[in-house]
Write a structure and sequence with these properties.
ATP binds at residues 14, 207-211, 281-283, 329-333. The protein is α/β, with parallel strands linked by helices and 394 residues long. The protein folds into 2 domains: 2-146, ATPase, nucleotide binding domain (Nucleotidyltransferase, domain 5, 2-Layer Sandwich); 196-376, ATPase, nucleotide binding domain (Nucleotidyltransferase, domain 5), CATH 3.30.420. 39% of the residues lie in helices and 20% in strands. The strands form 2 sheets. It has an 8-stranded mixed beta sheet with strand order 5-4-3-2-1-6-8-7, sandwiched between helices. The mean pLDDT is 97. Bound molecules: adenosine monophosphate. Adenosine monophosphate is lined by residues 209-210, 238, 281-283, 286, 328-330, 333-334.
Length: 394
Amino acid sequence: MKTLVLNSGSSSLKYRLFSGETPLADGLAEQIGEPTGHLVYHNLEKKLEHNLTEPLKDHKEALKQVLAFLTDPQLGVLANPEELGAVGHRVVHGGEHFSASALIDDEVLAAIHACVPLAPLHNPANILGIETAKEVFPKAKQIAVFDTAFHQSLPERAYRYALPESHYKDLGIRRYGFHGTSHRYVAQEAARFLGRPLEELKLITLHLGNGSSMAAIKGGRSIDTTMGLTPLEGLVMGTRSGDLDPAIPGFLAQHLSLDAAGVDQVLNKKSGFKGLTGSNDLRTIEAGYQAGGQAERLALELASYRIQKYIGAYLAILGGLDALVFTAGIGEHSALFRKLCVEGLEHLGIELDPQANQHPHQPDLSAQHSKTKILTLPTNEELQIVRECLGVIG
Ligand code: AMP
């Protein structure tokens, strides 16, 4: 079966087409609705790339153009649009409605709409992607795969905040967690790599990219995660502060005369690595660190120190640990940051092999006698979305 995975943003559309679990084509439409649009198309089988620079009026026009490439006699991978069995949509927030992926019908779409207040920037763009795909591929099944669903297994003591109960009941304020598709995928990959059933493993997964989060996974179920009501909580990220004294937003509002949107902007866009060093790109920060930069040293120490605190906390609630799994841009590529994250944890049975850590394609980074495995495994959210689609369709 052929499945198209779509990740729809407010002015962008990322796509990858699969046959079964094999990717055939992918690409990205950007600057949709702007005077100049850009569309990239790759035929992965024939290793062909095609670029188009012309205005893309709206998402429908962008997706129709993608379809034109997919069915092009030279560049394409589909004989006709009817060959497409399913479209899998990445949906950021499923609230408490979804603990699994879902076949989209009117009721499911209404529930995704109901989650818009929880993800006002993301869910409307995801809904736009769904509505567009329904028009362009009317025969294909539409499936929603939620970033939050994997974390719906959190126990109440982990997902509730100590706020008045009405704030949970009436406003839905609780920990939801994100990056669920990635955490689930690398947990499965870790089990496969270790040659053990996921059901018997205790794992900590670290999705470290521009956005970062950790999850404590017991027997394949997420039991805690660092992101909360929104993706702002938890780790130090590219431009997000992560954990703070909850009084700080009020303090900022008062002293800098900011409204709620202004405070949000500081914490989401101007903080994290960007706020500490001026750059949100870890490669730039690493270069500064190697050159003896103080701001870069502090940023890497602060970020890895917080990760160590969460490793300690998650080790306690898991009651043991089989593997620590690094993934995403930083987790897969930064040997320096991985080293800082596990340095000094030998007393917990977590010990790195420094040579293996430097090797670009070595999944097992643990010293021979390390009680806990330290792994780096590439994430593949698109492949996980395809697997979810195949699971939903049966
Ligand atoms: P992601 O959001 O998963 O695409 O990850 C983006 C982050 O990964 C950015 O901070 C990049 O600087 C970082 N990154 C990507 N490649 C490397 C690399 N080779 N070394 C260090 N950091 C990297």
